[in-house]
Each structure stands twice: as C-alpha cells, then as structure tokens.
Design brief:
Blueprint lengths: L1 H14 L6 H7 L1 H17 L3 H15 L2 E2 L4 E2 L4 E2 L6 E2 L4 E2 L4 E2 L4 E3 L11 E2 L4 E2 L4 E3 L3 E2 L4 E2 L4 E2 L8 E3 L4 E4 L5 H11 L14 H29 L34 H4 L12
Parallel strand pairs: 1-4, 2-5, 3-6, 4-7, 5-8, 6-9, 7-10, 8-11, 9-12, 10-13, 12-14
Antiparallel strand pairs: 14-15
Length: 278
C-alpha cells in the first residue's frame, strides 16, 4: 500500500510541473484523492461490499468532481490532472502509467450486462474532453486528442483526433520512430494534441480541391488550343471557386483559375445564358 502511495505521488511530479511539494499534492489535488478513494472502494467491491463501495465513491465524486465506478480496474501510476468531469465506467480497464485530463469519459454504448467500457493499454494519454466509448481496446502508447470521440479499437503507438476519432499518425512498425520524433518536437504532450497536428478531413478535402483546380486549368488550356485550330468550343461561364480551402495547416498554393474570357465578353448574351445564382 505504501509503495502504491509513493508511486501515485511521484507520478504527479513527473507529469504536472505545477506540483511543488508532497504536502500540497496530498491536500489539494482532487485527482490524487479520487485515485486513493478508488483503491479503497475497489477493494470493498471485490470483497462483497458493493453498497458501501458505491456510497464511498459517491462521496469522492462530491468532493472531487471525478466519478470512478468501484468496479473499474486501474493500473499503477495512474494520474488524473485537474479532473473535473472525469467519468470512468464499471467495466473499464486502465493499464499502467496512464494520464487523463478533465472532462474525459470512459463510457459504454450498450445497456447490456457484461463488458461495456473501454480497455486502455499502458502509457495512454487522453486529452481534455475526449470520449472513449464501448468495449474497445486502446493500445499502448496511444495519444487521444482533446474532444475526440473514439468508438473503434486503436493500435499501439497511434495518435487519434477528431469526431469520430481518426488515426493521424503512428503504427506498430514505426513506434520507436514516432516516440523519438515526439520527444524531439514537443516532449510530453500534455493534452494529446499539438498546434500543428493535421486535420485529416481538411487535408483530404484541400488535396481534392487542389486537384480540381489543376484539372480546370488544363481543361481551359485544351479549349484554347482547340479554338486556335479552328474548332468550335462553346463558351460557358463557370462560377469561380475562388480561394476554396478549409481552415487547416494545408495551404492551397495553386494559382487562381484563368478562364481566358475578356471582361467585354461577360456582358454579352441573354439572361438565359447567365448561370443562375445558387
């Protein structure tokens, strides 16, 4: 018991630079209090005293704002930073050296009895507000970004962001490279995300837009070439896409599309020839 207590105290100093003294942690850290109370309630739950365990867990929730079901299984050196709003379900399993931030939910998606909550491997970091739902497995060394919603298994060493959660980096084969890159770039990633972390949806759409811009430019060049050879090509004014880009770190460097039409030609034609506003 004393060894576990020392480990819980030491992991606070390793992961929270604001911690100054052991006395401060013991008296003012709600995450530390919630973990200590869970050790007691889990012991009572396993030894045939579920009602008393639930009562004490509710008392801990009242004072800490953290709800951990007594049936949840939690490994060593578990740290909850800030902690307000954290919910951990009955059948959740958490490995060693895991870190959760405020607003995290390890919840279920079914009313059926049995395994309903996620299983976390070792050294998992879950950012503020993230939701991990269902009887899924989160592998070792996984980072889950703030406010992500994860409903599928995640392999070891992955980084997950978005709603629904999408893997944006890491794999089992390059796990060591990923860890070294993260260590060089940002050190310990407290909230499971960084400012330059890519948005997979925005990147995909921006790449498609870049491709469309290039295809339109080539089509315009082909039309000009056919006109120069005497072919009759209908002049159709297409609405300009403009700088169509989602707000992300992917920058659309393709120049604007040139239609090849003179300003004097834009006023010709009847109202039927003009595109209808959308």
């Amino acid at each position: 018991m004393w060894e576990r207590l020392r480990e819980d105290l030491d992991c606070v100093f390793e992961r929270d630079p604001a911690a100054r003294t052991r006395f401060e942690v013991i008296t003012t850290y709600p995450g530390f209090h919630a973990v200590l109370m869970h050790r007691l309630t889990h012991f009572l739950w396993k030894n045939g005293l579920p009602w008393l365990a639930r009562v004490l867990s509710n008392v801990a929730r009242l004072f800490t704002g953290i709800e951990i079901h007594p049936g949840a299984t939690i490994g060593r050196r578990f740290f909850i930073d800030h902690g307000m709003g954290v919910v951990i379900g009955e059948t959740a399993e958490i490995g060693d050296d895991c870190t959760l931030y405020h607003g995290v939910t390890l919840g279920g998606t079914s009313w059926e009895k049995g395994k309903r909550h996620p299983t976390l491997g070792n050294d998992v970091v879950i950012g503020a507000g993230a939701k991990v739902l269902g009887p899924i497995r989160i592998g070792d060394d996984v980072r889950i970004g703030s406010n992500a919603v994860v409903i599928r298994d995640v392999h070891d060493g992955a980084t997950v962001v978005g709603v629904p959660g999408r893997v944006v980096g890491g794999s089992q084969s390059d796990q060591q490279k990923r860890r070294e890159a993260i260590a060089r770039k940002m050190g310990f990633d407290a909230y499971g995300s960084t400012q330059d972390m890519p948005d997979p949806v925005a990147n995909a759409i921006n790449n498609m837009l870049d491709h469309i811009h290039i295809m339109d430019k080539r089509l315009e060049d082909m039309c000009r070439g056919l006109k120069s050879l005497g072919a009759e090509v209908a002049d159709m004014q297409m609405p300009d896409l403009g700088p169509c880009e989602l707000d992300s770190h992917t920058v659309c460097t393709t120049p604007p599309i040139e239609t090849g039409d003179d300003e004097s030609d834009q006023g010709e034609g009847t109202d039927k020839d003009k595109p209808e506003p959308r």
